[in-house]
Amino acid sequence: MLYPPVSVARDFIDYPYFANLGAVQLAAVLGAPIVDAFALPGSTLEPQPDEPGRVRLGASVAELLAAVPTADAYVVQYTPFHRPPTRDALLGELLAGLRARHPDASILLADCYQSGQHYVEAPGDVVLAAYPEVDAWVKYEAEVTVPLLLTALVQGERPRGVHIGATPELDALPFPAWGRINLENYFRFHQRVVARLGRGNWAFPIDGHTLPLVTSRGCPFTCIHCSSNPGREAGAPKTQRRYSEARLREYLQTLVKQHGATRLEALDELINVNERHFDAFLDEIDTLGVKWDAPNGMRADYLEPRHLDKMKGRVTTLSVSAESGVQRVVTEVVKKRLDLAEVVRAAENAHTAGVSLMIHFMIGLPGETAEEVNGTLAFAMDLWDRFSAWPAVQFATPLPGTRLAEGRSLPVVADWGPRFQFEPSPDTTTVPAAELLRFKNTFDKRLRSSNGPKKLIVNVTYVCNNHCTFCAVGTRTQVHAHPTRQREHLLKYRKTGVTMVDFDGGEPTLNPELVPLIKYSRALGYERVNVTTNGRLCAYDDFAKKLVQSGLTTLLFSVHGPDAQLHAQQVGVAEAFDQTVDGIKNCLKHAPPGVELGMNITITKGNHERLGDVAQLAWDLGLRWLNIQFLTPFGRATSHVAPDLDYAARIAMGVIDHWKGRMKMQVINLPFCFMPGYEDNMEGDMLKLERHMIFVNNEEVNLAKYLAERRTRKPVCATCPHAVFCGGFYELDKVPEPEWIVRAEDLVRPVRPDVPRL
What we know:
The protein is of the alpha/beta class. The chain has 23 helices and 28 strands. Strands 24-23-22-21-20-19-18-25-26 form a nine-stranded mixed beta sheet. Strand 6, helix 3 and strand 7 form a beta-alpha-beta unit.
């Protein structure tokens, strides 16, 4: 029995490091020696130089061939990781070497299907043509059919062609022959996979002595995307076969007591579909005291609080499958008999029990609308926000042999695995593939931004020497914040791992505690410290030098017009422009290496048409960073000073195009639909979820949630691929006109009691 090495993309689907389970099981049935590429001294994860982005799992073909004894027949496991139906380079090299060394031996390919991993259906003639070295291919389960073929070989018959594997009775099978491979090598192989893959925490670890198993084969449910029960005749019901309770307990005891497993990975398609079976499994696991996971997911509606109680401390991640967050799609498209309320119940119960939960979702299903895609993403994000249930969102991928693939012309691909994560299938859905990518990319960014604060914004004062027409805090009491309390906030957030802080206002430079706060932040370990200022105080050279050399890493100057007149109209101070420009020059002169200086402009009715001139001013002054900020509906920022957003956005896009590659530009506080194609310039708006703000009165808020109070959804949001991250449209207050103003429609009536009719 031979298990060959496999070549996988670094972002693979399923669990290829457990794919040798079928070979170990068949070796037990045959009573034959096994040469396992995962259990040789050189078994490792090795990048494939001829295929960038792919790695070899297992020993080299040369090492494997050197360990193969002479025999009359060889059975070689054939897995979905060998990329059917095309010729896989590693498997082809092994078979060619085997045939060259043993020209008269029979060579059988066998799927050794165990359930629990995706199956890729392939035409028999195409597979045999890809591997002319083999005599026959045994599809699906192998434990009954392979022994019959080898018996026929002994009797003088040479097996040829494709053979469909018969279904074994699980209790009649011997347990997998883990004693026939070098388990220490196998466990070291797992350690090398973990070390060399370069991933962070694993949802389903393979630490310690981890062994895979299946306690059942098949699944009785009929979801259209699933490849379980391969080879089932058309019209035949889907079924699940399970070990008896006594045999199951014996199996678990053998893995732990005889083979030394400290963690078990149950690869069943659906381990909790039968209550008695699942309870027996949990009871025996509890008795043995080992850790375990079931990465393929469970039925949420069959998951009870008593199950969760027994999982706590034993499973790393509980996995359930919702498939969609829209009931119509779950019922009519996926054909999954599941009430989504049960998924919510499972999420709440897992959160209460302290069990980490992962929920599987798909987007890009047949007939699924853009609005329904958003429904799924919103449902997934809601469960994450409320119950910390990790949303595993993938593209619906029509594997050959599934009902999802029926009637579709599928591409021949080297590896189906990465398609689940990175490449939607354009012929499965009414939503274009490019649009699906935008949905998922936005969702992934939203998810990354939900893992607690990464930046702290501290308003050190509301005092300001400008009087901007749009100021969001301009109506607040003009006071400084308390320095001791602000140090307490800085220390608290630093202890949580936050490494970025912004000091804002009001005008922060008017607070004499600003520079001490910057130095205190750096002493605490904040790596990035930004100050946003109008720069007027920096017109004093000594102050500019002290500020720019205080330890800050970025300094942003607020400039709202390209000349003194227009800037003054926005900020209410005639001399402000000259002082700000002088301040910029002074700071540029004294800035140490590594300190980045940039410019902010808030877009108003009065300055939006001069945005290009402001960008030119920034460039001429020596700044290479411009933030274009639209109004937030607080303080003095009302509809009275707001520009037409469509028109202003078009101007902004033109300015970005003009300076592309020369100046960094970010757009803030504008819904994505105003600037399609410029999402990379608008990500700063997304990142507000990662930001917490401390007001002068010590109130703490999540910035995105705070701003969301003044944002509304409109019909266009329902199908927008950014809806899961975008808060919608800002609703600016309207400033009522004074009652004494005379308008054309008032010419026929008095507008004030003391004003006569004209």
